[in-house]
TrEMBL record:
Region (Disordered): 116-140
Protein name: Class I SAM-dependent methyltransferase
One GO-annotated biological process of the protein: methylation
Top-tier EC class: transferase
GO molecular function: methyltransferase activity
Annotated Basic residues bias: 131-140
SMART domains xref list: PKS_MT
Family: Belongs to the CFA/CMAS family.
Enzyme Commission number(s): 2.1.1.-
Pfam families: CMAS
Keyword annotations: Lipid metabolism, Methyltransferase, S-adenosyl-L-methionine, Transferase
Lineage of source species: Bacteria, Bacillati, Actinomycetota, Actinomycetes, Kitasatosporales
């Protein structure tokens, strides 16, 4: 009688010291676990070998990307249920090293090894980043990391992001029928333009411009001259075509350029939307100072950036293992307070902070729905493994925002003029009406 699922469930519960919150179906067709719960499907023994070799989220991710592990039922519910086992273990909870001092835990591991069978370990899926030696966040390493994430194919991103081609948190209205991703992304770009007080004749620098959406919106709707910089050649080519199609080549310039090499200031405003996560903790002050130097007195910066919660050990800012290995190589997340401090150290006066955490969860759920609605085409465009990477990354990120493990914030800062004024309205958040 097939019993791999029951044996696997009992051994994992013995090792973890807690009941599994999900149901398991094993490679022999057997099932075990709470009735009605989402089902983790281990399609072969290799799925277990991946978990044994790399316990935690990276092992789970490798099994998912390779297609060895799938979920039947609601993916969000499954991720929510296992969050406490994988991502949210208490800092004071015993780690695996301490757990394995217990004879029962060691016996469970031996049982899992026998159940998994040889050989061990499997090679990582080819979609995983192959690490190279050298310093992080050099111009060369940043170009390589950006290419890994953004040069997946513009057709693939069109499928996921929709017509707006905006790859950052949208700005949603109050819950109700009729809200669309496209409108919410338009409203986000408009919100940023109003916070930056963009007007005809002013100059905007969009750092990490992506496919050109912010630069195009600012030029078309607010009459500015915009420069967008990106390290992705695929993005730049796509953005330039959009600019030409909009008839904005006289007002929008798209460059393949590192922000550290921009030297044609002063600008009246700088937008950095979903780019600062790539900068890194060590160079962050350099980033802030570079943007400060590119602004004229009274110029505004809108820094839209994902933040993580403070933790006891602040020696690393690296993103989760799965995201670092498959999605954003070398990405680093800092707490909001650290970001504000660095901007202030660079000379900025921080004038407003707005959290959009729930907005990003909604945005990600829409992206996942787009991907799942075109699953076969996504697999053809990017490859089956890469499509699974993006599905897991976006769904898990949505759950992380919903559970308040991470947040996203718009920080509005000003380069103060010598007079001490800021040019800001006396009452904050008066960007509800379009400026003249």
């Amino acid at each position: 009688m097939p019993d791999a699922a029951l044996r696997l469930t009992r051994l994992l519960e013995q090792l973890l010291g807690t009941p599994l919150p999900v149901r398991i179906r094993a490679w022999d067709g057997s099932q075990a676990g709470p009735p009605g719960a989402p089902m983790l499907v281990a399609r072969n023994r290799r799925a277990l070998r991946r978990l044994l070799f790399k316990p935690g989220e990276l092992g789970l991710a490798r099994a998912w990307v390779a297609g060895d592990l799938t979920v039947e039922g609601d993916l969000y519910t499954a991720l929510d249920l296992i969050a406490g086992l994988v991502w949210e273990r208490d800092e004071d909870a015993p780690g695996l090293t301490r757990t394995l001092r217990d004879p029962g835990a060691r016996a469970a591991v031996r049982g899992l090894v026998r159940l998994a069978g040889p050989p061990l370990p499997p090679a990582p899926p080819r979609e995983e980043v192959r690490r190279r030696r050298g310093r992080l966040h050099t111009r060369h390493s940043d170009r390589r990391a950006i290419s890994h994430h953004y040069d997946v194919g513009n057709d693939f991103y069109e499928l996921v992001l929709g017509p707006s081609m905006v790859y950052s948190c949208a700005y949603w209205p109050a819950p109700g029928p009729g809200a669309t991703l496209e409108q919410a992304q338009h409203d986000k770009l408009e919100l940023i333009c109003r916070k930056l007080d963009l007007k005809p004749g002013r100059r905007l620098l969009d750092v990490g411009c992506g496919w050109g959406s912010m630069a195009i919106h600012a030029a078309r709707e607010h009459g500015v001259s915009a420069v967008g910089v990106t390290l992705s050649r695929e993005q730049a080519a796509y953005a330039r075509k959009r600019v030409a199609d909009e008839g904005l080549t006289d007002r929008v310039e798209i460059r393949v350029q590192d922000y550290r090499d921009v030297d044609d200031g002063p600008y009246d405003a700088v937008s950095s939307i979903g780019m600062a996560e790539h900068v890194g903790a060590a160079p962050y002050l350099e980033y802030a100072r570079a943007l400060y130097a590119l602004l004229g007195p009274g110029g505004r910066l809108l820094n839209h950036q994902i933040a993580r919660r403070p933790q006891r050990d602040e020696s690393t800012y690296r993103v989760d293992e799965f995201i670092d290995a498959y999605v954003f190589p070398d990405g680093e997340l800092a707490p909001l307070g650290t970001t504000v401090t660095q901007l202030e150290r660079a000379g900025f006066e921080v004038r407003d902070v707005e959290s959009l955490r729930e907005h990003y969860a909604l945005t990600l759920r829409h992206w996942v729905a787009n991907l799942e609605a075109h699953r076969d085409r996504a697999a053809r465009l990017a490859g089956p493994g890469r499509a699974r990477v993006w599905q897991l990354y976006m769904a898990a990120s949505a759950v992380a925002f919903e559970r308040n493990r991470i947040g996203v914030n718009q920080v509005l800062a000003v380069r103060p003029p010598e007079s001490g004024g800021s040019g800001m309205p006396l009452r904050a958040r008066t960007w509800g009406a379009k400026t003249a």
